Amino acid sequence: MFFASDNWAGAHPAINERLMKESTRFAAAYGTSELDRAIEKRFNEIFEREVAVFFVGTGTAANSLAMASVARPGGIAFCHSEAHVIEDECGAPVYFSNASRLMPVAGPNGKMLPKNLEAAIGRFPPGSIHQGQPMLVTVTQATEQGTVYDLDEIDAISKIAKNAGVPLHMDGARFGNALIALDTTPAEMTWKRGVDILSFGATKNGCWCAEAIVYMDPKTAEDLPFIRKRSAQLFSKTRFMAAQFDAYFANDLWLELAAHANAMATRLREGLSASNSARLAWQTQSNELFVVLNKDKAKAAKDAGASFYDWPVPHDMPEPVGDNEQLIRLVTSFATLENDVDDFLRICGTS
Amino acid sequence: MFFASDNWAGAHPAINERLMKESTRFAAAYGTSELDRAIEKRFNEIFEREVAVFFVGTGTAANSLAMASVARPGGIAFCHSEAHVIEDECGAPVYFSNASRLMPVAGPNGKMLPKNLEAAIGRFPPGSIHQGQPMLVTVTQATEQGTVYDLDEIDAISKIAKNAGVPLHMDGARFGNALIALDTTPAEMTWKRGVDILSFGATKNGCWCAEAIVYMDPKTAEDLPFIRKRSAQLFSKTRFMAAQFDAYFANDLWLELAAHANAMATRLREGLSASNSARLAWQTQSNELFVVLNKDKAKAAKDAGASFYDWPVPHDMPEPVGDNEQLIRLVTSFATLENDVDDFLRICGTS
Amino acid sequence: MFFASDNWAGAHPAINERLMKESTRFAAAYGTSELDRAIEKRFNEIFEREVAVFFVGTGTAANSLAMASVARPGGIAFCHSEAHVIEDECGAPVYFSNASRLMPVAGPNGKMLPKNLEAAIGRFPPGSIHQGQPMLVTVTQATEQGTVYDLDEIDAISKIAKNAGVPLHMDGARFGNALIALDTTPAEMTWKRGVDILSFGATKNGCWCAEAIVYMDPKTAEDLPFIRKRSAQLFSKTRFMAAQFDAYFANDLWLELAAHANAMATRLREGLSASNSARLAWQTQSNELFVVLNKDKAKAAKDAGASFYDWPVPHDMPEPVGDNEQLIRLVTSFATLENDVDDFLRICGTS
Amino acid sequence: MFFASDNWAGAHPAINERLMKESTRFAAAYGTSELDRAIEKRFNEIFEREVAVFFVGTGTAANSLAMASVARPGGIAFCHSEAHVIEDECGAPVYFSNASRLMPVAGPNGKMLPKNLEAAIGRFPPGSIHQGQPMLVTVTQATEQGTVYDLDEIDAISKIAKNAGVPLHMDGARFGNALIALDTTPAEMTWKRGVDILSFGATKNGCWCAEAIVYMDPKTAEDLPFIRKRSAQLFSKTRFMAAQFDAYFANDLWLELAAHANAMATRLREGLSASNSARLAWQTQSNELFVVLNKDKAKAAKDAGASFYDWPVPHDMPEPVGDNEQLIRLVTSFATLENDVDDFLRICGTS
């Protein structure tokens, strides 16, 4: 019963088999092998346009190098106030972008409210030398709160970024889960909605180490090879990342895995909604749930071997958490077993 | 006939099997799993003392974070003038160490000459506010030129560093190859000779992605967890690196692999020394050779599918390279086949 | 009628005479002259202990280099949410401190509320690798809102910083004005209350370019000479800064000038309080006032040549600003003329 | 007898009078006053084209911000191996340019040899991801060795920079002295020879703190206001720098002062050339001399109160320095007295 995080899962067998096959060959290093090139082209098909792709080792690297590539002196990137880039990356995006700053923008359910974003950017009109200049807007899809921006919401954010003359970045650490939740395509969820740069995460969804930065307009990525190398993110045997992506994309494995994770989350949501001992703290659409659970049930689950995180109660919690309750986060993954879900539901079920 | 670089090799089957086994399990992320802890302890045994170990994704990351951890304002790190850190890492060590500088120190065969190092450091006495202050000495073992510092040479460098009050770092991208060449132990080649920080490379020697920074005195590494996270080098599924190290160290696999690479290099050296069409540009001790080869033979080898790099002729080349000759670099690895060596020798043999 | 800012004032005649005298001499450069040394010692007397003093060119430089000197990887400095360091320095403190971050702490009247500071720091317990580590608390004295932390309030902030194991910095761009407002001594307002590092500003109070960073414990400033040089803040003819401080301190000129500025502010406060057309937006103690003024009066004042800034209405404004009113900021200085104050009051007086 | 450095001189009376006059006025801060604007325009006249001008506090700041403005990831700036930027600024240009690197280029007499520059740049062809990419060429005019690039030499350097697609920067800490030495105009010595960015120094030549960065093409300077503010180089009372430039340019005072300094150097050169106890180490054209002096004479001069620096003997010294001789540097300035020159010559004269 592993619900602590999707990065507690291992790697999918198909990924491993592909790695195994790759391991017996010799090939050129530092991203110059035929396999590297082939997989970069695969991204073109998936995004229905020519994109520039750069493999990196971590999601934090993807976000940070994306920010580095658009850094401006005194630059400011706008993100949700609870976004991973501002809360959980130890300042890496600030560090890699030549000390550009991150400005938090509030909004319910982990999503920036467009009017708040507009107001935040509006505080930095051209020539605000003492304050700085906007350089990026970044959204997380799916969000840290388990929600998903729908296409119209991305559109609205995108328009504000365009008006401000800055690019739009999407942190897609859980890109596949969001895609399944919206039942849409990579193109529709990104560049057709004005997303310019994407952190495309595969590690949480079945790989063990495969992240990519995708530039929808390759011309904007001309310095990225140098940024990546200088940032110590150009792996010598990068083709082993390419190999993971190869298996990840083959036969739409990645969509299948994300769909499974989401389905397991739905099963949890439905089961817990029906329980007297639990309620959903807020509605989510991806593979994360936030649940207000009876403390005794939570303890029973932990005693039975379930792993999950207690979660700090946000200030805008719709309904208060009672004394005998606690807020927890549950995350499902490609590897979550239906049996584990059902065991957990049984333990946390009707009292 | 792959002699271009040891990072063109794939991964050893034992590494892959261990990865496969790891992939089916759930475990805590970000370096907190039991396996991570167990492997960190394994390093204690290998180095015969308690060390602090941090897994990172690339050799450049290991070198750069080591430099970051000793950075001082106006700081200067001293390295050989052809060291990887100054020549081949796109400025990453400078970048990660808050714009500390690298100062090249000359010396034959890829090794800093102690008197040159002493003179170089001597230009920065305490209080050289306009010039800067020494912060690190770094040696590469084995060197970029295929040579190996013997223990006395490390001692001599170490004494100069200690006199200057700065730590000594070793770039061990080919640590195993050097160890085999010297027939010594990790402890003897490092802290017993005054090495304080080690970039311990395993990628070139049979892993696909496994590098570690080793601090001989854990107290000096207290900020490293933050440095690593901020540098985007804390992998979520870091236990897959731990797993590679697990297999790498089991039954001394790593020493066996390095010994094989070195043996293949020796076989090449001996074969080419006996040829009329080739001569060793200079003596090497590790898995790299630099060979002056008849141009026709070089072409024949390439035509037969051999991969290797032409190498720029250094200014201090002992004997000149003739018009019908060229300088090439050959690198062997854990995966080099004896047959390939013999084929290559046959092509480049006596004319 | 110049009330836009105290940095619109020129320089006091005594400062200029001292500069004139200095200009005819030759002396050693880069802070090594006898005058430099003598003035550094003068700071010891003023602060009643041995301090380390570094002259720099701007208040932003003083704040930024102070932050640089305590920077830690993933480091976080805590400041009031409207502090100059976070709002008005284009990210310089972040930039100079190796991409450390500034964390805003709310509180009324421009002062951090101790419980808010405690909560903010509490979010970063030891080992918060993904979030970062506290490195500094910084207060502004006098604040951007014209208020002044009283000694007990500094004590309270200081205790929280000490508990967190981080130093306390004071941005004293208007140090003299605060000192006069509290009727206390430099020692009492700083190290006796736990302040470790001070940005000591003299530019706003009668010099044209004289700022200093003061370390209450010289041992903590050992790297500062390198930080200052690397930050391009070591002036060649730094003795011209020393000369300004020489005149500034002579016969307590600086206290006299600050007292004058404060007195002019008091005169404005009293006059405007008695007016039907104006009211104080909130109480201030230094040389800044925030006034809600009848729009017609404001226009009349501008037409008569008065300079002052319209000010954005803060969200926690005690009483709303009416449609025919506006919020303005008035700043007095060492050079403010009593006549100008009276002229301004006449224009803005009872309708 | 002050010959230690031109920054040991004070400030010219005309500069001081202008400062005095400025000090009595109120005016807008942070570079927005009418005087600031007027002086910026004065630079247009002096350079015979519309330029963008930014006042900063130190020569190191001017050089560093110039480098920051052209920084590229993995970027490399090429300079003479003994240039101030690489030798004497504690790494500031590296620090401010986001860890770009400085690559030393050798050449006699403090001047880069064009063929050496060409070879140095040639090591970084497009796509040298592991090595980095050229971003700037920078020359010092007059050089650290007291020599001056003639116009043809600047042309030759400039062509190489243009071919490499990188801008050319000139460190003009002693711009006036070079101008007088070449008997040419600012336009001829800069943009007409391909110089794109100039560090225009006035501090050494009669001001006490007045440096400017001049962009020959204002469009290339659009980010400079943010760079300057973020670098803590936007002075609040920047008009006091403008005032210094105002007096500096009035009636060509600056040319007069530089001519005086150069004439004093010529007088020293001529006198010492005629002495049996001294000889010029190499020919210089600006206000610096390097002299091989009899040790007894050197001691006698010091005893008589002369200040000058002993200088390390360069490796390419034309004639060796004898056991009873030493190499010294003499620098004249706008404030050097003819009497002092003659006294010094008398002491160091024919034995």
Automatic annotation (TrEMBL), chains A, B, C, D:
This is L-threonine aldolase. It comes from Agrobacterium bohemicum. Keywords: Lyase, Pyridoxal phosphate. The keyword Hydrolase does not apply. Its EC number is 4.1.2.48. Pfam families: Beta_elim_lyase. GO terms for molecular function: L-allo-threonine aldolase activity. It is an enzyme of class 4 (lyase). GO terms for biological process: L-threonine catabolic process. InterPro entries: ArAA_b-elim_lyase/Thr_aldolase, Low_specificity_L-TA_bact, PyrdxlP-dep_Trfase, PyrdxlP-dep_Trfase_major, PyrdxlP-dep_Trfase_small. Homotetramer.
